[in-house]
Amino acid sequence: MPNKYTRGRTDHDIALVRLHRPVTFTDYVVPLCLPERAFSENTLASIRFSRVSGWGQLLDRGATALELMVIEVPRLMTQDCLEHAKHSANTPRITENMFCAGYMDGTKDACKGDSGGPHATHYHGTWYLTGVVSWGEGCAAIGHIGVYTRVSQYIDWLVKYMDSKLRVGISRVSLL
């Protein structure tokens, strides 16, 4: 976890896990690429829709998914995200390390148990890790959207701690 992370807070909500054995890729287990920071911020961030997946709850206080759930969510402009948070009581502060995505009408959202899952953006045939499911107020609640850790803020940190064998070309590093 980043040195700046504080337990119980929402900022710097990202971790890197070392696995005991390599992942076996299949039709259902596929890698995501870690983008270069500038590419993520200048190109990928401008793509409106991305995918979020997880095995979390299907509804707020509901049952947990029995199969991997995948939704497409629109990314909100930073100003809209900040404006939304300003009008919600007891909402954690949105920082430069976060972004918002989702539907204000409550149709789709990540939920409890999805935290730590990927926000993946598709660009010219390749999927890139652009966010990590972090927090939200309820699940698919009208007037509330999901908040994600902005992976581009942590590229240097991730590369520093990743196994050197994976650093083939930073824009093509596989992460789950």
TrEMBL record:
The protein's name: Vitamin K-dependent protein C
Single biological process term from Gene Ontology: proteolysis
A GO term from the CC aspect: Golgi apparatus
A molecular function GO annotation: serine-type endopeptidase activity
Domain Peptidase S1, residue spans: 1-163
Record EC number: 3.4.21.69
The organism's place on the tree of life at top rank: Eukaryota
SMART domains (UniProt xref): Tryp_SPc
Function text: Protein C is a vitamin K-dependent serine protease that regulates blood coagulation by inactivating factors Va and VIIIa in the presence of calcium ions and phospholipids. Exerts a protective effect on the endothelial cell barrier function.
Entry keyword set: Blood coagulation, Disulfide bond, Endoplasmic reticulum, Glycoprotein, Golgi apparatus, Hemostasis, Hydrolase, Protease, Repeat, Secreted, Serine protease, Signal
Family annotation (InterPro entries): Peptidase_S1_coag_factors, Peptidase_S1_PA, Peptidase_S1_PA_chymotrypsin, Peptidase_S1A, Trypsin_dom, TRYPSIN_SER
Keyword Protease (UniProt): yes
Compartments (UniProt record): Endoplasmic reticulum; Golgi apparatus; Secreted
Location, primary (coarse class): endoplasmic reticulum
Coiled coil: none
Enzymatic reactions: Degradation of blood coagulation factors Va and VIIIa
